[in-house]
Write a structure and sequence with these properties.
With 333 residues, the chain is α/β, with parallel strands linked by helices. Helix content is 41%, strand content 19%. The strands form 3 sheets. It has an 8-stranded mixed β-sheet, with helices on both faces. A 3-stranded antiparallel β-sheet has the order 4-6-5, covered by helices on one side. Helix 1 runs parallel beside helix 8, helix 4 runs antiparallel to helix 6 and helix 9 packs antiparallel against helix 10. The protein is globular, with a radius of gyration of 20 Å. The two termini are 29 Å apart.
Length: 333
């Protein structure tokens, strides 16, 4: 199963941490390379999960083998440099303030920090031991959001899926570059399939549920991932995909709901949408099945389907072109 790659911050909200422990192999986030700064940024809870093999810190500058071109004019470095220049050439951003979001020292390559400052997109914080550059929120979201998508598309040691709770971060990572051409994508609402424990639930209880109901979890995860993969591969026949997965998803959800009731935990359903990129198709080529049909089939297993256009990846992996948006405060009735 893939690992949830949370962005743009180092520490994910508790609800997304629990989502990762229930429906993913684990959770990851982009962290500073410096050990001193890392210890400041990463919580004790994440360190405990790392000890258990469930949290995977990703240091960009340490991924030279997995991300070709990092530190050179290619790969991830080249993508981010080009994005920064396009941002600087666009409409003026708010004047940089020391109150703006800060980038942790060593979280991105020093050359990228220099480029941010050179382009007038950030201001160095020479007196801070942990933070290096103050940047407008747009720059922070661009750097980490695009980096997360590129990590997911290029990393070879682990399968990552970008996942955020911030709409602006999600849209920044998917939006088309100026003058660029996009590719088609499905947007699927999965919130009713993937409930989470109510706010305030201790992580220890989530871990206990993860272990006790492993079979039910994995069946639901496998069915969901299969459906998304089939929507990507068989994008011309979405109705067939949904029909073929209807029985398996319905049964998997039923078993999981039974496990959730047995746990005596309180559960909520949040809005969780996934964007599934289709590299071979333009957005206009994706045809949503008849809405009445969707209400009868897709609605019965708890999701909705729509289309959109997104930026193409610089080097896409064929098996996992997904990106998630989690609305922590948006509960589904």
């Amino acid at each position: 199963m893939p690992t949830l790659l949370y962005y743009p911050l180092v520490k994910p909200p508790q609800e997304i941490l629990h989502q990762a422990l229930l429906y993913w192999d684990g959770i990851a986030s982009v962290v500073p390379e410096s050990r001193e700064v890392y210890e400041e940024a990463v919580s004790n809870e994440l360190e405990d999960l790392q000890y258990r093999g469930l949290y995977h810190p990703v240091a960009l500058s340490a991924l030279g083998g997995s991300l070709p071109g990092m530190g050179r004019r290619g790969g991830l470095y080249g993508v981010l440099m080009e994005e920064l220049r396009l941002l600087a050439a666009g409409p003026p951003l708010p004047r940089v303030s020391l109150l703006d979001p800060h980038l942790y020292r060593s979280k991105i390559a020093y050359l990228l920090e220099d480029e941010v400052v050179r382009l007038g997109l950030g201001q160095r914080l020479d007196g801070s031991p942990y933070r290096s550059v103050a940047v407008p929120k747009e720059v922070q979201l661009l750097l980490i959001g695009v980096a997360a998508r590129e990590i997911a598309s290029q990393a070879i040691d682990r399968s990552y899926t970008p996942y955020t709770d911030q709409v602006s971060a999600h849209e920044t990572s998917l939006r088309l570059p100026a003058g660029g051409r996009g590719v088609g994508a499905w947007r699927v609402e999965l919130g009713r399939l993937l409930p989470v424990p109510a706010p305030g639930t201790p992580t220890s209880k989530v871990l206990a549920f993860r272990d006790r109901y492993s079979d039910e979890r994995q069946r639901l995860i496998a069915a969901t991932q299969t459906m998304l993969g089939d929507l990507c591969r068989n994008w011309e026949h979405p109705a067939d995909v949904l029909q073929q997965m209807r029985v398996e998803l319905t049964q998997a959800r039923k078993e999981y709901e039974s496990a959730a009731k047995s746990s005596r935990l309180a559960w909520v359903s949040r809005s969780v949408s996934v964007t599934v990129g289709v590299a071979a198709a333009a957005a206009s080529a994706l045809i949503v099945p008849d809405l009445a049909w969707v209400a009868g089939v897709a609605g019965s297993i708890g999701f909705n389907v729509a289309t959109r256009e997104v930026r193409p990846l610089s080097q896409a992996k064929r098996d996992h072109p997904f990106s998630y948006l989690h609305h922590v405060d948006q509960e589904l009735a």
